[in-house]
Structures are given as C-alpha cells and as structure tokens.
Amino acid sequence: MPTYKQHRTAAIFSGLVMVAGLGGIAACSKTTTDKVEDATANVVSDASSAVSSIGADMEANKTEDFVKKAAVANLFEVKTSELAVKTSKNAEVLSFAKMMVKDHTAAGKKFETAVVGSGVTAPAALDDDHQKKYDDLAKLTGSDFDKKYADLQKSAHDDAISLFEDYSKNGKDTALQTFATDTLPTLKAHQEKVKTLNP
What we know:
This protein is mostly helical and 199 residues long. Helices cover 86% and strands 0% of the residues.
C-alpha cells in the first residue's frame, strides 16, 4: 500500500504535469494568436498597397488620357484651321482661322514642354475619329465648308474646355496642370469668338 510520502510525490508530479500542460496550451494559444495577428497585419498591408497601386494607376491613366486628348484636340484645331485659311473666302472665318493657327501653334509648343516630365508620349497624328472629321470637312467648299468648320470649332472647344478644366482641378502632374490652367482663358476666348461666327 502506498505510503504518505509516495502519495505526496504523485500529487506533486500530477500538478507539475498539469501546469506544464496548461503552459503548453497557453504557449500554443499565444503562437496561434501571433500568427493570426501577423496574417491580419499582412492582409491590411497588402490591401493598403493594392489601394495605393490602384490610386497611382488611376492618376497615371488620367494624365495619359489628358495628354492624348489634348494633343489630338490641339492638332485638330491647327489642321482644320490651316485648311480653312486655304479654303474659305469668308473674311470672318478667315480671321478666326488665322487666330486659331497662331494661338494653337503657340499652345502646342507649351504643351510639348509641359509633357516632357510626365513619362507619356503624346500622339503626333489625329485619331481615327478626328481624321474622319477632317477628311469630311476637306470635301466641302463655299458656305458649306464655312458652316461645317464653325460647327466643328464649337464642339471641339466645348470638349477641350471640359478636358482642361477637369485636369486643371484634378490633375496630378504639376507641369501639365499648370499648362491646362494657363491655356483655359485662351480656349474660352476662342469659344466665345466662334459663337459669333455667322458663315
């Protein structure tokens, strides 16, 4: 029959086993908690990186969109106005077209300087839509030409002002944003002038 001393030793041993077991559970629990916390931190970090990346992409896309549209719009203004100088016999249309060639050629040079640091390559030719409009205009003569030219200038300036106003407020490339802001008054002056044309 076990003695008192043996009972006491067994009880102490059992207690130690229990403490060790509880310690192991606690350690396991802590390890699991740490892993969950680490995983959560990684998810949050990854999500933040993803949001930052999306934001950067959106800003880059906005700048690229502005550069492409502004380049095509300016080229369209110059080319259609050069065509008007050669084709129109209307003194009012001719005066407006000459002003357009002068102002938009100057704007084009400023644009080339502003776009350098953006990392975006500006198109050097009209897109299909604007090329078709140019080709259709080139087929006309007389008052038909003058009316079509005036209509194209009205819609082109409405679009350009909307584009430039948006980028001047929301653009992220400083040089291009300054260019958009500085060019707006000229575009608006053209818009008001073209409204007075009566070909």
